[in-house]
Amino acid sequence: MKLARNLLATLAFGSVLAVSLQAQAGEAEIRKNLAARIPQFAKIDEITKSPMPGLFEVRINGFEIFYTDADGNYLLQGNLIDVKARRNLTEERIEKLSEVDFDKLPVKDAFKIVRGNGKRKLAVFEDPNCGYCKHFERDMKNVDNVTVYLFLYPVLGPDSTAKSKNIWCSKDKAKTWNDWMTSEVKPQDAPASCDAAALERNVAFGRKYNITGTPTLIFADGSRAPGAIPAAQVEKHLAAAN
Fold first, then answer.
1. How far is Cα 117 from Cα 42, in angstroms, rounded to an integer?
2. What is the pLDDT of residues 197-208, one digit of tens each?
3. Three-state SS at 112
4. Mind listing the pLDDT tens digit for each residue in 15-50?
5. Which whole-number Å values give the CA distances from 18 to 13, 23, 185, in the listed order?
6. CA–CA distance from 149 to each of 13, 38, 82, 152, 218 (Å)?
7. What is the DSSP letter of 23?
8. DSSP letter, residue 120
9. DSSP 3-state assignment of 169?
10. Each residue of 54-64: pLDDT tens digit?
11. C-alpha dist (Å) from residue 93 to 36, 98, 167
12. CA-to-CA distance for 92 and 50, rounded, in angstroms?
C-alpha cells in the first residue's frame, strides 16, 4: 500500500513537472519567434496561459494584451470572451493590471475638494479643457459627504498645461478649479515662481497606470471608472468602496 502511494505521488509530481517544463518551453519559443518576426515584441513583459486551451496571453508595454499559440506562429489582438460565464476576460485582466492602491496615490500632487463631512474618498484625474470633465463637475455637486482628491491631468494640449498651472498655483486651488469648470471663470496667470512639477508627475503616473482618458475616477477600494459617469453611479461606487 505504501509503495502504491509513493508511486502515485511520483507520477503526480512527474505530471506537474512535465506541464511546467512544457509551459516554459512554450514561453521560450513564443519569445524567440515573436521577437524575431515583430520588432515591437522584442521586449515582452509577461507570457501566461490563457483560460482557453492552447492559447497564451502575451503582455507588452504594461497593458497591451495579445494572444498566440504555443509556437508564436499566430497572433490575435482583441477580447477573449467567456461566453458561458458572459465575461470579458481581456477587459477584466486589464482592469486588474491597472488597479491602483488608493493609499499609495501621490496625494501631495493633488488638491482636496471636501463636500459635507468628507468621510468618503474619491480620486479624479481631469484635464481643464475636457468637456466631459466639465459636465462631470457640474453633476458632482449632487454628491455629498465626500473628499475628492483632484489630480490635474493636462493631456489635451499646451493650453491644458497652461490652465492647469494657473489653477495649481492659485491661492485657492479648489475654488479656482470649480469656478473654471462650472462657471467658465478663466483662472488668472500663475506666478512665475510657482513650482508646478506636480503636473508632470501626474502625467507620468497616469501613463504608468493606464489612465488614458479624462475624467478617470479611482475609488477607495482601488476600482476605477473611466468617463463622466452620472452622480447616481458615483454614489453606488462610493457605497461599495468606502
1. 51
2. 999 999 999 998
3. strand
4. 333 334 344 557 999 999 999 999 999 999 999 999
5. 9, 9, 67
6. 51, 41, 36, 10, 10
7. H
8. E
9. coil
10. 999 999 988 89
11. 27, 9, 36
12. 13
Residue among 201, 203, 152, 158 nearest 180 (CA) = 152
The sign of the dihedral angle between the CA atoms of 116, 117, 119, 124 is positive
For residue 230, the model assigns a pLDDT of 94
pLDDT at residue 109 is higher than 60: yes
Q: Tell me the C-alpha distance between 60 and 45, whole Å.
A: 5
182 CB-near residues (< 8 Å, 6+ apart)? 134, 137, 138, 141
Place of cell 512527474: 14
* Residue 124, all three cell numbers: 479624479
Residues paired with residue 225 on neighbouring β-strands, in sequence order: 217
Hey, what's the torsion of the CAs at 101, 107, 112, 116, to 10 degrees? 30
Q: Which helix (H) or strand (E) holds 106?
A: none
Residues counted in the chain: 242
Asked if 73 and 56 count as a contact pair (C-beta separation under 8 A), the reply is no
Q: Which residue has the higher pLDDT, 102 or 18?
A: 102
Beta-strand runs (E) in 69-213 = 75-76, 81-82, 87-88, 111-115, 120-126, 146-152
Residue written as grid cell 485657492: 172
* C-alpha cell at position 223: 476600482
**Predicted TM-score (pTM) of this structure:** 0.75
